[in-house]
């Protein structure tokens, strides 16, 4: 009996016509925080997610499940079909994860940027863990985001900075814990991504784009610190140990908080200067006469930022 098959009863609850003898569980090995299975019966498929530990304290499981359901209802991620104490069952999305090379292509990069902007606007949430294994390109070509354990209130510059950092991690080969500095997006790629995120594909807004890119770059260390903290607090494993050790080298020692501040709110909390910079950027964008849809989203951000800063 496989680990997944122990939870067969939960599959049968939502697929009562499936015969237990025909149900197959195949583990999806790229998952890190959870144990994930493809559950199949003949031509039909489901996804089962068995939760990993939350002893690291970096997110609340009940809140994560609630957010996953809410995001799915708004068109982000797979539909949650059934939940139970140790995990949940989701609809299967047919498609494939983009390769690292795919993710860097202009077309895919533009799609990711537009999807991320849509998520921020429509849900008020960040993804906060947007690497290639947390995306899937449907067989029809549409891009989907997956795995929302680390979602939090919308903070666009952090979410984009974290995504750019993830470009350095192909998550394949013999050393998936090692970053590759040469894979970090070039300035031209970062500008293109931000251009599509902001919806400025018509040109003529270079100063606003450059300002936003600079603010994104200022959040890279926040991302590094969070994931070092995650690795060190997620339980002993060779991967976590090597990952934390390698990623620590990207953080100057004077930028690393002491052990007493190892809380998510502290590690990722933007400074007042960051909030003020974001507010300035969105103010400039509104002055550039965007479309009505852009204006609505931008004013929402501006109100939120003014309330915080």
Automatic annotation (TrEMBL):
Source organism of the structure: Polarella glacialis
A GO BP entry: phosphatidylethanolamine biosynthetic process
Protein name: Aminoglycoside phosphotransferase domain-containing protein
Family as reported in the entry's similarity comment: Belongs to the choline/ethanolamine kinase family.
InterPro entries: Kinase-like_dom_sf (IPR011009)
GO cellular component, one term: cytoplasm
Gene Ontology MF term list: choline kinase activity; ethanolamine kinase activity
